[in-house]
Every structure is written in C-alpha cells, then in structure tokens.
Design a protein that fits this description.
Layout lengths: L1 E2 L9 E12 L2 E6 L1 E2 L13 E3 L2 E8 L5 E6 L10 E6 L1 H24 L5 E5 L5 E6 L4 H16 L4 E7 L17 E7 L12 E4 L14 E9 L3 E8 H21 L7 H36 L21 E5 L8 H10 L3 E8 L2 E8 L6 H11 L2 E5 L2 E6 L5 H12 L3
Parallel strand pairs: 1-4, 16-17
Antiparallel strand pairs: 2-3, 2-8, 3-7, 5-6, 5-8, 6-7, 9-10, 10-15, 11-12, 12-13, 14-15, 17-18, 18-20, 19-20
Bound molecules: zinc ion.
C-alpha cells in the first residue's frame, strides 16, 4: 500500500480503493491500497476524518506496514476494489505537525546544551507535550534549551523527510539511532536541509508528520520540569497555537487577579506575598483576640455557669471531679470560640465539654485542667451524635452529623464524667 502521509504531511484528501475489511463488533476495520491517514506510532496519535463520508475514529498500523481505519457499521459495506474518498481532520493534523516538529527541535536543543540530556521518550497526545530526558537539567539548562529551540523556529528553516537505506546511515549524524531496519525515513531540520540534509541542525529517524518550515511551531514554551522514575527529568512544554492558547488563558487569569488587587500583572508576586503576610498577621491577631474573649468568658462562666449557653447541664448536686465542671452548647455565632473557651476553662482548673453546630455537624471539644480523663465523655457524646474523634486524656475533640441530638450528647458526656 502507499503511505501518502509519508510524502506529504499537508495532504488532507485522497482517493483510494478498498483492499479488505474486518468486522469488530459494531465497527469495521478497513484497509486501502493507499492512505493519507497517519496511524498511531512513534508517540504521535492517529488522525481522524472520514472514508466515503463515514467517520474514521482510529487508525492503526500492523507489523507488515498495513494501515487499518476503524469505521462504524458492518464490514460487508466495504467491498474490495470499490473506490473511496478519504478526508482527514486538518485541524487535528495541524496540531500534531506542530507538536511533533517542536518536540524534535526541543530534543535537539537539549543535547546541544548538554549531550547527556538525551530524549528517552515523548508524549504528544495532548496540548501539554512532554519529553523525558536523561540527566538532570537545571533551570538554566532548561532556559538555554528553550532559547535554542525558539531560535531554530524563528530562523524559519526548511524541514524535509526522505528515505535512505540502512547501509547509508553512517553518512547521517542522527540524534538517536533508528528502531527500524531496511529503508529508514529521516526528518531533517536546518538552514540548508533541502540541499544538504546530512548537515542538518536536527536529524532523526522518524515516521511522523512534520511541518514544512520550523517557523510553524513557534513559540516553544516550557511550562514545567519534574524528576520522574528511572532518574529522568520530564519537561512539559507547548508549541504553536497551543502555546498561544496557554498564554491567553494564563494572561486572562493573571489580569483578573491583578484587577481584583488593583495592581499590574508584573507586580502580582510582590502584592500576593504582602497579602499573605497581612493574612498571617491578621490570623494571629484574631486568635489572640479570641483567646482574650475566651478568657473573659471563662472567668464569667466559672462564676455563674448557669448563665452561659442554652443547654447548660452543670449539676451542682452531683459529685464533681476537682474543679468546676462546665458542659454547654455554644450559640452557632460563637463557634470560633469552641476550642479557645474549652482551653481557657481547662487553664483555670475546670473540666469542660463544649459543643456547637457548625457546617451541618455538631462539634465537641472536651478539656480538663483538673486531671480528669475527658475521653470517655467525648466518646459518650460522639456515640449520641453518630460521629468520630479522639485525643489525649486532657484534651479531645470530634464531630458528628446528628445536629439535633446535641443536648442528649452533652447529657451523656456529663453522665460519663460522673461515672454514672
Ligand atoms: Zn519524531
């Protein structure tokens, strides 16, 4: 069969004849005597499009080089010898040309920065492209490679693909040795590759669809580097339209944030850092204020326990542990005082079991400054609330979903403290 895609990566329509068809459930795989569809291989995803107006959603190549196109419907509809017109989704093909050619330029740029940074594998399946490199390029090496790759793009060099015999390969300084034998397809990128492909800036064995001119892939933008398994470095990047789309989205997000903060995009890092510092100081001040308020409340409460809360269950008749016992539900508006107040009461030698309803849950904090193990009280309360929690003997906390059972839960906690 004839691989039209190997000779012209911009060919989007072609005429061919059916050679064979195989059934595959409610789909069929169709083989033609010629095809411009690129089959998934070499890290580049397959094309989509149509054959005789029927959508092609997958294209695969077999070991014998035969390309099969997946279409919906019965295999019997594809009669050997019948003519078909093929059409390829040009938008998807264009993205794949940009992605794959940009990957060649960036991989070459990395080995020019340091021969150790050889590309071990690539992923071209989404807009965020990756190359997995040997070695550990640092930020400076990444920036140098990114610069070189963009320079190669903006120099607008021609790109050519051609086949050579395996025996001729020694004339061509390939970035990486080919994985196939016999006739080998090479892709060359450089100032004069149309006249002297062996002198290419970038030369690799590759069956992919590539741009005609390196300028088509610009810009090449590195987004991330990370160490991955196998002692490799994964570099994530974008090229061409997809790099531009990323810039648009990022700029829109940054501009919106800058407008909210009444500053310029360039001043965002300093502004955000200052805001983070302010927020930290404000949180600290708020915690201190809550602590003071909790201390005042604790002082008042230990004088007049019956006046606080709406479910006070203190029982002056019952035998007490050392120090006062405060078992109470806080108003929802005082929810932020739950822990500070329990701690303030414990700091004054009291034993406290406090509850509040917040966010659809009943929260309980138990604390003691009298040497009482509060965990049985917490456990009893949480059993009623249907919740979970834990802690140390002198302080424990938890929460449960049964917000209507707070009064019962506190009674259970109260009983547990009295050993009932
Ligand atoms: Zn390639």
């Amino acid at each position: 069969m004839s691989r039209l895609d190997q000779h012209d990566a911009y060919l989007l329509e072609f005429d061919a004849h059916v050679v064979a068809a195989r059934a595959d459930g409610d789909h069929a795989w169709v083989r033609l005597d010629a095809s411009a569809f690129y089959p998934t291989s070499g890290g580049q995803p397959h094309d989509v499009g149509s054959l005789a107006g029927v959508a092609v959603d997958d294209v695969r190549i077999e070991d014998d080089g035969a390309v099969w196109h997946r279409v919906a419907g019965a295999a019997a509809a594809w009669v050997a010898g019948h003519p078909v017109h093929g059409a390829i989704d040009g938008e998807r093909r264009a993205r794949h040309r940009q992605r794959h050619s940009a990957q060649h330029l960036l991989s070459q740029a990395f080995v020019r920065v340091d021969p150790a940074f050889a590309t071990r594998s690539v992923a071209l399946t989404g807009a965020d492209l990756t190359v997995d490199l040997a070695g550990a390029p640092d930020d400076d090496a990444i920036a140098a490679a990114e610069w070189l790759a963009n320079e190669a793009a903006y120099d607008a060099w021609p790109v050519v693909a051609f086949e050579v015999d395996e025996a001729e390969l020694e004339r061509f300084p390939l970035r990486r040795p080919p994985k196939v034998h016999g006739r080998i397809r090479l892709v060359a990128m450089g100032a004069a590759v149309d006249r002297d492909p062996a002198g290419a800036w970038e030369l690799s064995a590759c069956g992919g669809t590539h741009v005609r001119c390196t300028a088509e892939v610009a810009p090449i933008v590195v987004l991330k580097r990370e160490r991955i398994r196998g002692d490799l470095t994964r570099v994530t990047f974008r090229a061409g339209w997809e790099a531009w789309a990323h810039h648009r989205a990022t700029h829109a997000a940054a501009s919106a944030a800058a407008a909210t903060l009444s500053t310029a995009v360039a001043d965002l890092p300093a502004k955000v850092a200052a805001l983070a510092d302010e927020a930290t100081a404000a949180r600290r001040a708020l915690a201190e204020a809550r602590g003071r308020l909790a201390a005042d409340l604790a002082d008042g409460l230990l004088g007049e326990p019956a006046e606080f809360g709406r479910a006070d269950a203190s029982d002056p008749e019952a035998p007490r542990p050392d120090g006062a016992l405060v078992v109470a539900e806080l108003e929802p508006g005082d929810a932020d005082l739950l822990a500070p107040l329990a701690d303030a009461l414990a700091a004054r030698g009291a034993t406290a079991v406090l509850a509040v309803v917040r966010g659809g849950k009943a929260e309980v904090v138990a604390a003691s400054g009298a040497g009482v193990d509060v965990r049985p009280a917490l456990k009893a309360a949480l059993a009623v609330l249907g919740g979970r929690g834990g802690g140390k003997p002198e302080r424990a906390q938890g929460a449960g979903p049964d917000v209507d059972a707070v009064a019962d839960a506190l009674s259970a906690a109260h009983d547990a403290l009295h050993g009932d």
